[in-house]
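Quick log. Single chain, no ligands specified.
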Amino acid sequence: MPIWANTSLKKVLQPAARRAGITKQIGWHTFRHTYSSLLAESGDDVKVVQELMRHAKVSTTMEIYTQARMSKRRAAQSRAVGALFSRQRAEVRSNETNA
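-> predicted structure:
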């Protein structure tokens, strides 16, 4: 008997996910989202990710499939806040020395 994607999903993948403690409903597209996010996170060029995902548009890859990891988001936010506050501190010091 042939192995069908939906049968494998219901009989193998979803029960394995439940045993692993994953409570969300997962499917084959879950792997596409994960793959795209991992490629982007590893620093691969957006165009390369798009071609590997076989999307016609980069916007499909970046807006729908690729999600930034929380640690990457926090690091980016910390850099932005750090840059902002270091500039403000430098301006305050500059104003204090000029006064």
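The CA atoms of residues 9 and 51 lie 26 Å apart.
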